[in-house]
Amino acid sequence: MNTSTHLLPANTLLDEEGNPDYDPRRFYPARIGDTIQKYQIVSKLGWGTGSTVWLAKDTNCWPWQTNRYVALKITNCFERDRKSAKDELEMSQHISHIQTVHEGRSYVRLIQDSFTIPGPFGEHLGMVFEPLREPLWLLGRHLGTVGLPSTILKAFLKLVLKGLDFLHSECHIIHTDLKSDNLLLGFEDGSVINDYVRQQKENPPQSKEVHGHPIYQSRPDFGGLRKGVGLLKISDFGAAVFGNVPTPHRHDIQPEQFCAPEVLLKAGWTYSADIWNLGMVLWELLQDISLLDGLGPESDRYSREAHFAQMIGLLGPPPQELLDRADSATLSSLYTAEGEFKHPQLIPSEAFTFSDVTPFLQGEDKRLFIEFASKMLKWLPEERSSAKDLYNDPWLSFRSAVDH
């Protein structure tokens, strides 16, 4: 495949080069057209601080078989990146070995193959996944809406809750990173990938080469929806942990704005941290907003203090029972010895009830949604509903007159 007509100057930053911590020695020097194990690289789908992801063709198919494409994730060679990938592989293998008839297994994305790839500066781990189309939040753009219409989100949430119940109840796994980018939709039709592959051959991506290291522009866009949507899958288990441990976990997890109160307080967390996390994601999926962003009234930087103050504004003061479990150093940054919250000026001064922060829903749909969300967003982790209980919540089956 000739990409010479698309070469960029060496001083033009491309994809991962834009990261201030970018180090080319970490990344595997993959080239479009190369075959790694039995997978021939077609295009670059994306990148992160610890890996690149490629669409690749399985070359072991017989000529009369339909082409099989995979997503090939190649981790960086530095030990920290490889450790995260190995943790994800361990979780995927654990899930794969569980004998179950639980429907939720269908909504979890697993690693299909893995292998070590030698590189110029160390070993990389290659992990093969089913290729998926895009994150759930992008569906709103296809529909021409800001966020997802509630009737559409409800259908997908039932799948997420099925998958989460499977992870919690049968796999004993806490995901810890339930952001909308990790809820991925499959392809509605096999022709979407075939057309995409043909387009990559006809119009190769921009690329550059620095000291023998190739860098390609990502091509994650598979075009508009053709008919319906594919299956939803929960993905990315790089930060997942086991929940069936003797003592609760206490290390930091979750995207900052989605952190559960027990995580902020270092009070010990378990499966219900995922439930809070998912509750926070609802506003992002419905309206593309952060319910609690952790930004103070005069600051554009996240702070634990502002985030906790917003929780107080929404839920009222936390119960003493929760504060008693908190790490002493963390608690002292939030409360005086007399039990007074140190940062009252950070508590939202305007109306900040569930009703106020949900202006995009109306009537009975809004009332039932607030009841649904309130079961997930509770101070005490043990008072939150489980994924299994939430699956049958009235809001998920409610259809307004507009939906019919």
UniProtKB/TrEMBL annotation:
EC number: 2.7.11.1
Lineage, uppermost ranks: Eukaryota, Fungi, Dikarya, Ascomycota, Pezizomycotina
Annotated protein name in UniProt: non-specific serine/threonine protein kinase
Binding of ATP, residues: K73
Organism of provenance: Lepraria finkii
Location of the Protein kinase domain: 39-396
Keywords annotated in UniProt: ATP-binding, Kinase, Nucleotide-binding, Serine/threonine-protein kinase, Transferase
Family: Belongs to the protein kinase superfamily.
Xref: InterPro entries: Kinase-like_dom_sf (IPR011009), Prot_kinase_dom (IPR000719), Protein_kinase_ATP_BS (IPR017441), Ser/Thr_kinase_AS (IPR008271), SRPK (IPR051334)
Pfam families registered for this protein in UniProt: Pkinase
Enzymatic class: transferase
Reactions performed catalytically: L-seryl-[protein] + ATP = O-phospho-L-seryl-[protein] + ADP + H(+); L-threonyl-[protein] + ATP = O-phospho-L-threonyl-[protein] + ADP + H(+)
